[in-house]
Backbone:
């Protein structure tokens, strides 16, 4: 306590001697710059998470797979940005079309010209509505991207929970 | 890769997908579902690539000969490349093609360091890396038609996220005018030029 008082006193003296050159403000330390990307912070233990959500991104290629598979990111290959933008759009489109029905993240694969979107859905709608939405999204996406688009859907009762955080 | 079908009894049967090296790609969605008697129903959709067999053309011109056909396969996942190498070597053995070399080139890592924050905080950065794994398969002494069939089959079954580069070394017959050296053919001309 005494030490801190004396240190502040000395700091004030210093600042009065050299006006403005010695800053007393404290810059933010490493504690605020923790990595927050694609990570779920630990909570009370009541929040269910799927395997995909529970593992942080440094486990990709070790314990996780890839959600979007294309050749744009390989050495000597082109079209990285275009594939990424297409992926983002497709994810948002499917998320909006099947609102509340997606059990997990989409897996987008490109084989030659064909765009294959693999989705896990919950059984919230009637199968006829599902079929209509699948056909609608396939037609819309194939018209937008001028390539055959396939939607592979598997349905579940509930989300597959891996962990509670 | 297999198509999955959900039967009425609730069990799932795996059916191998037809692998055909052919021209037009016709695709069909196969959907099976139970009638919506209960409130919950489940179904799967699967995609099957089916195509018609390509026509066989017979020409009188001699077939091109390849001394070496080398495939360089690149991918992010080493296990995918392992299984693809097994597939390609098995296909080559079945077709009777001589495989001269199958090796794994060392991986390439592309790393970059970016600032972690949107504004200031220069001392805190994030590092990303992208790894590219390679496989090299070399086949020797093929005819043009064999190479065409093999490459078409192997390329149609290339997995997603994997790229392939093919290098073909063709053999050509030595042209007639350089088969024999000139001084053997016309000795008289040389004597005249000397004298």
Residues:
């Amino acid at each position: 306590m005494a030490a801190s008082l004396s240190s502040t006193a000395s700091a004030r003296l210093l600042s009065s001697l050299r006006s403005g050159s010695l800053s007393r403000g404290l810059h933010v330390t490493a504690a605020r710059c923790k990595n927050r990307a694609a990570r779920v912070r630990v909570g009370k233990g009541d929040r269910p998470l799927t395997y995909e959500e529970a593992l942080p991104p440094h486990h990709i290629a070790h314990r996780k797979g890839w959600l979007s598979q294309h050749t744009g990111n390989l050495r000597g290959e082109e079209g990285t940005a275009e594939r990424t933008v297409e992926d983002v759009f497709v994810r948002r489109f499917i998320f909006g079309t099947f609102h509340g029905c997606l059990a997990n993240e989409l897996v987008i694969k490109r084989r030659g010209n064909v765009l294959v979107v693999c989705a896990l859905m919950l059984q919230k709608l009637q199968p006829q509505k599902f079929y209509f939405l699948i056909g609608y999204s396939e037609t819309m996406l194939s018209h937008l991207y001028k390539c055959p688009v396939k939607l592979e859907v598997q349905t579940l009762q509930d989300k597959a929970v891996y962990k509670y955080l | 890769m297999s198509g999955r079908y959900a039967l009425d009894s609730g069990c799932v049967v795996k059916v191998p997908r037809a692998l055909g090296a052919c021209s037009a790609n016709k695709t069909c969605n196969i959907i099976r579902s139970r009638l919506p008697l209960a409130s919950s129903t489940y179904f799967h959709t699967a995609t099957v690539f089916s195509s018609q067999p390509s026509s066989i053309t017979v020409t009188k011109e001699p077939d091109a000969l390849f001394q070496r056909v080398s495939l360089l396969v690149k991918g992010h996942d080493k296990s995918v490349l392992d299984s693809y190498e097994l597939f390609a070597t098995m296909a080559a053995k079945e077709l009777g093609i001589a495989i001269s070399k199958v090796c794994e080139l060392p991986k390439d890592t592309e790393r970059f360091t970016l600032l972690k924050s949107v504004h200031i905080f220069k001392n805190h950065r994030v590092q990303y890396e992208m790894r590219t794994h390679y496989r090299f398969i070399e086949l020797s002494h093929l005819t043009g038609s064999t190479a065409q069939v093999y490459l078409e089959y192997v390329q149609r079954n290339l997995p997603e996220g994997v790229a392939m580069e093919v290098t073909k070394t063709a053999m050509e017959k030595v042209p007639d005018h350089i088969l024999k050296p000139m001084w053997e053919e016309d000795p008289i001309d040389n004597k005249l030029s000397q004298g």
